[in-house]
Amino acid sequence: MARPSYIPDNFTLSLIAAVTLASLLPASGATARVFEIVTTAAVSLLFFMHGAKLSREALLEGLTHWRLHVLVLGCTFVIFPVMGFALRPVLGPLVTPELYTGILYLCVLPSTVQSSIALVSMARGNVPAAICSASASTLIGVVLTPLLVNLIVQPGGNAVSSFDSIGRILVQLMLPFLLGHMLRPWIGAWMKRHSSVLKYVDQGSILLVVYTAFSAAVINGLWKQVSGADLAGVILICAILLGFILVSSTWLARKLGFDIPDVITVVFCGSQKSLASGVPMAKILFDVHAVGAIVLPLMLFHQLQLMVCALLARRHAIRPADTELSSMKD
To answer: CA 25: distance to chain centroid?
Structure first.
């Protein structure tokens, strides 16, 4: 029996369950500390596996398309932050200041790796370039996101604190990633045969981080501060941001003369925001009691981007092959 279209996917249901569990039974005291240790280990394992899975050949092939990568990084780290900051006078009144801080935070995050590549592949875009762009975005975001947090999200933040945060992120995320990539010649074949394991580690680590983050937030009164109107406001703001970046990235890619597969790669890599990187970094960059409100907009945006971009990818997937040839001639 086919699954009804109105029922969310299993991961979305799991996220809802994690938030519900944290709201009803938040981890505290010694239990919370155990969850912190387990969560940190799971996130490090996730990035280790991402590094081991990344093909160096595909990376080198994609690196040659530098104009595309510059545009994707521009969408991710320039257009998005400017958009969130510039629209604050208009969109800020729709939510609490804490929630809009979360909106600004999602604007400075790197792109996703897995979903960006999966969407580009589904839409018949330039997959090698997508692998390179998405991976570069994640690696650059480890350093750039903390700096942008001090510049845009929390203006006037301590530079020493920012560099300390970068160091902690490098140890927790970047070091396992590089170690996994260095060990790829020995474990790459095993990773390829067991690629489904990465999916479970990916989703499991996010669920752990969401549970621990929301537990701390609930203990500090998150749901007393966030109303139904606030949630509706966050969803509306996320929809506006996503719509703007999809339209602007498409227009820019076409204006610069990219063919259809490259336009697809720019749009999907430039419009995504990483939950896998964003939630662990939030725990390092912000006070514990604030993390729940900070990551709530990111969680909602993540679900929205997947649903909307999956629909767009399906539309691109059914295009006739000769449209690509005609676009190249034009």
So the answer is: 27
CA distance 304 to 193: 31
Report if residue 41 sits inside a domain: yes
The total of other beta-carbon atoms located within 10 Å of residue 161's CB is 14
Q: Considering the domain boundaries, does residue 322 fall inside one?
A: no
pLDDT (tens digit per residue) in 136-160: 888 888 889 988 988 888 775 544 4
Cα separation, 197 vs 157, whole angstroms: 39
Tokens of 115: 């979903």
CATH of the domain at 306: 1.20.1530.20
Amino acid type, 322: D
pTM more than 0.90:
no
Number of structural domains (the chain) is: 1
pLDDT in tens, 74-95: 999 999 999 999 999 999 999 9
CA distances 66 to 13, 43, 266, Å, are: 38, 30, 12
C-beta neighbour count of 66 within 10 angstroms: 11
Give the domain range for residue 184: 27-316
Do 260 and 323 contact (CB within 8 A), yes or no?
yes
The whole-angstrom separation of Cα 124 and Cα 120 is 6
**Token representation of residue 183:** 């060990």
- In this structure, what token pair is assigned to residue 108? 């400075």
Q: How many residues does the chain have?
A: 330
Q: CB count, 10 Å around CB of 204?
A: 15
